[in-house]
């Protein structure tokens, strides 16, 4: 039963990570930015939901669109004020990354200042999650179901937008070759704004889900961003399926592998971040071909499937 | 009044030397070699963790302290023992400085190995994530530096002097000397054939590879030197604060070292020292504000962070290579060449109508 509970929680955290990694991958692929400020979009939307629902007693469902809008607004603002001018000046990817972290920290400090003036540094949304299924020691809350369903819905929608609409076509054109897309008449900066909106939506959803799930502090988003970036690294930076797989892998690693390590080898539960680090480093080693993963995999494949043909 | 000023100056000097070591090592990595290190705080924290794990444990073994490592009693006992045994304490201090340097070098080399095979930005993000996740790990693991509580009672090596002021002044002078040594070391590296090789790697990796330079080895070695220097800085910081607390080592340290680097200018060691000076003056100055002039309704460190981040964003936008970027090197050949040019110009001036 404990095992099943761990499976469910790994799916839930995995879908949160995958959703975040999705947003990161889209920015990285289409406008070539390591969007470290993404964490603060999540923080802002989490704060909006938490403050509105616990201070002004607005229904959580009503807070949801407001927090979504705030995340999108911050996303567009950061892009217009920081990323776009830098890109126009021809900044390198390292400078953009530095600017992204600086912008994120700036937003975080402003949140800190406002939160400590209004005395809401640690806050939680006024919503108690209900359990909808109890079986032995297995407990499933409505939040788990909502998180999984929303993630699936978002992924399907994004997939549809990217593959079937004109906007998605333009984004994919930018993804492949920015200059060529610009020369072919794609309004690059307009599409860029749409990308910011697309990135803001998952951030808003994750933020408001998190504010219901747990307490919110100004470092909430940063804590969620690190595994998401690890997932992006595991998935190979600019591949969307890779990012999703990486997100679920890290979720499984954090909950399921940790549980197995705890039960079998009696390793302390404190080693959760270390397991994530290990997964990320192994992925990095495989990518750098220090561990010859590809030849081994190819040989195993040949051994299993094509033994007769050789 | 005098003693207050002296304390302020010595604290400023200590922080200045720590900042100088951090930013100079970042300059060696990014300014001279082109390795974007976004995990500066990781190597910095390594030194502090070495101080936090090694010093209390060795003191417990040497002086037979029976209290549990993390208790407050044990930390006061460590300080009392430090008062009685100045020479042993000094030896422990020097040993932990050397040890942290070695640990920093080894881990820097190990981390560089996979990442240098990939693109530069891979190294940047993987170092950043390693830094942050390792901090989360150290915070939750109680056996390294006592988890969330942090470990206290790391005695200042000059604690037996008695007077607080003289102790701080001596410590600041010592850290200043170490910072000067690292400045000297980096300056020597950079103005040697080795330095010319790493600069050529920064400017054109393929060309230097074609000239027969082992690019990956040079990069790994530079990362090794730089992380060893920043680990020593971390060790100095831990002994100065007397307390190792994992949540001190957040990404802000990395950003501050980048800010100092850009305030000075890429590949310009003197400029970077000036940048660190500007930074430490703003930093220490803002810390004094609440007690003197105005009372803020929030922690002054948030205001400091906001100011520094706005400064960093402005510099990246308008002066992306730093305020005083690299100048052509003053080599003997160039001196001869310039003297020759001057002579030619003077000759032309002397005889305008040829």
Structure, explained:
The complex is a heterodimer of chains A (310) and B (354). Chain A has 310 residues and is mainly alpha-helical. Chain A has one domain (2-224). Helix content of chain A is 77%, strand content 3%. Chain A is built from 12 helices and 2 strands. Chain A has a two-stranded antiparallel ribbon with strand order 1-2. The relative contact order of chain A is 0.18. In chain B, helix 1 packs antiparallel against helix 12 (269-292) and helix 2 (40-62) packs across helix 10 (215-241). Chain B has a single domain (2-350), classed as ABC transporter involved in vitamin B12 uptake, BtuC. Chain B has a two-stranded antiparallel ribbon with strand order 1-2. Chain B is mainly alpha-helical and 354 residues long. Chain B has helices spanning 2-33, 40-62, 72-84, 86-115, 120-140, 142-145, 164-190, 193-203, 205-210, 215-241, 252-264, 269-292, 300-318, 332-350; strands at residues 151-152, 243-244. Chain B has 14 helices and 2 strands. Classes of the chains: A mainly alpha (310), B mainly alpha (354). The A-B interface holds A 34, 82, 85-86, 89, 91, 93-95, 97-99, 101-103, 105-106, 109-110, 112-113, 116-117, 222-223, 226, 229-230, 233, 237, 268, 270-274, 276-277, 280-281, 284-285, 287-290 and B 36, 38, 113-115, 117-118, 120-122, 124-126, 128-130, 132-134, 136-137, 140-142, 147, 251-252, 255, 258, 297-299, 302-303, 305-306, 309-310, 312-313, 316-317, 320.
């Amino acid at each position: 039963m404990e095992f099943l509970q761990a499976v469910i929680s790994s799916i839930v955290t995995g879908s949160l990570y995958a959703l975040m990694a999705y947003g990161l991958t889209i920015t990285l692929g289409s406008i070539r930015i390591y969007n470290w400020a993404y964490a603060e979009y999540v923080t802002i939307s989490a704060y909006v939901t938490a403050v509105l629902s616990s201070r002004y007693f607005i229904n959580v469902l009503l807070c949801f669109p407001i927090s979504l809008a705030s995340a999108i607004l911050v996303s567009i603002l950061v892009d217009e004020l920081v990323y776009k001018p830098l890109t126009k000046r021809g900044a390198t990817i390292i400078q953009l990354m530095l600017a992204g972290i600086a912008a994120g920290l700036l937003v975080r400090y402003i949140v800190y200042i406002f939160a400590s003036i209004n005395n809401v540094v640690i806050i939680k949304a006024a919503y108690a999650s209900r359990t909808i299924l109890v079986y032995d020691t297995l407990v499933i809350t409505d939040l788990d179901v909502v998180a999984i369903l929303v993630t699936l819905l978002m992924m399907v929608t994004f997939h549809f937008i990217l593959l079937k609409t004109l906007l998605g076509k333009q984004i994919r054109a930018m993804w492949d070759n920015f200059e060529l897309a610009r020369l072919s008449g794609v309004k690059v900066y307009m599409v860029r704004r749409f990308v910011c909106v697309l990135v803001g939506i998952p951030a808003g959803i994750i933020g408001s889900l998190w504010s219901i799930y747990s307490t919110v502090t100004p470092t909430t988003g940063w804590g969620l961003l690190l595994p998401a970036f690890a997932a992006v690294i595991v998935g190979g930076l600019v591949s969307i399926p890779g990012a999703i797989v990486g997100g679920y892998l890290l979720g499984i690693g954090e909950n399921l592998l940790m549980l197995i390590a705890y039960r079998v080898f009696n390793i302390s539960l404190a080693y959760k971040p270390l397991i994530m680090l290990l997964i990320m480093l192994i992925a990095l080693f495989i990518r750098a071909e220090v561990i010859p993963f590809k030849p081994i995999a190819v040989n195993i494949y040949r051994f299993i499937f094509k033994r007769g043909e050789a | 009044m005098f003693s207050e000023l002296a304390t302020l100056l010595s604290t400023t000097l200590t922080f200045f030397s720590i900042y100088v070591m951090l930013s100079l090592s970042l300059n060696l990595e990014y300014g001279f070699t082109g390795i974007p290190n976004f995990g500066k705080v990781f190597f910095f924290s390594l030194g502090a963790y070495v101080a936090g794990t090694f010093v209390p444990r060795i003191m417990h073994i040497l002086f037979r302290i029976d209290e549990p490592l993390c208790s407050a009693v044990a930390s006061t006992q460590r300080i009392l023992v430090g008062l009685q045994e100045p020479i042993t304490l000094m030896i422990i201090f020097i040993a932990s400085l050397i040890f942290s340097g070695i640990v920093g070098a080894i881990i820097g080399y190990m981390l560089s190995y996979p990442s240098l095979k990939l693109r530069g930005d891979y190294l940047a993000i993987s170092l950043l994530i390693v830094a942050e996740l390792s901090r989360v790990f150290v915070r939750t693991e109680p056996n390294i530096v006592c988890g969330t509580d942090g470990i206290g009672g790391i005695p200042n090596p000059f604690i037996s002097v008695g007077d607080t002021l003289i102790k701080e002044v001596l410590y600041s002078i010592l850290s200043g000397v170490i910072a000067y040594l690292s400045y000297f070391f980096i300056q020597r590296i950079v103005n040697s054939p080795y330095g010319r090789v790493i600069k050529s790697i920064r400017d054109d990796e393929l060309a230097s590879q074609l000239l027969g330079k082992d690019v990956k080895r040079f990069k790994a070695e530079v990362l090794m030197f730089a992380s060893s220097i920043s680990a020593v800085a971390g060790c100095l910081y831990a002994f100065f604060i007397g307390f190792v607390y994992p949540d001190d080592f957040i990404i802000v340290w990395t950003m501050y070292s980048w800010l100092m680097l850009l305030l000075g200018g890429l590949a310009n060691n003197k400029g970077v020292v000036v940048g660190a000076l500007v930074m430490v003056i703003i930093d220490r100055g803002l810390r004094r504000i609440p007690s003197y002039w105005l009372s803020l309704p929030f922690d002054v460190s948030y205001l400091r962070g906001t100011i520094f981040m706005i400064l960093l964003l402005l510099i990246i936008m308008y002066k992306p290579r730093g305020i005083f970027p690299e100048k052509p090197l003053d080599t003997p050949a160039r001196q001869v060449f310039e003297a020759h040019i001057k002579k030619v110009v003077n000759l032309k001036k002397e005889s305008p109508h040829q």
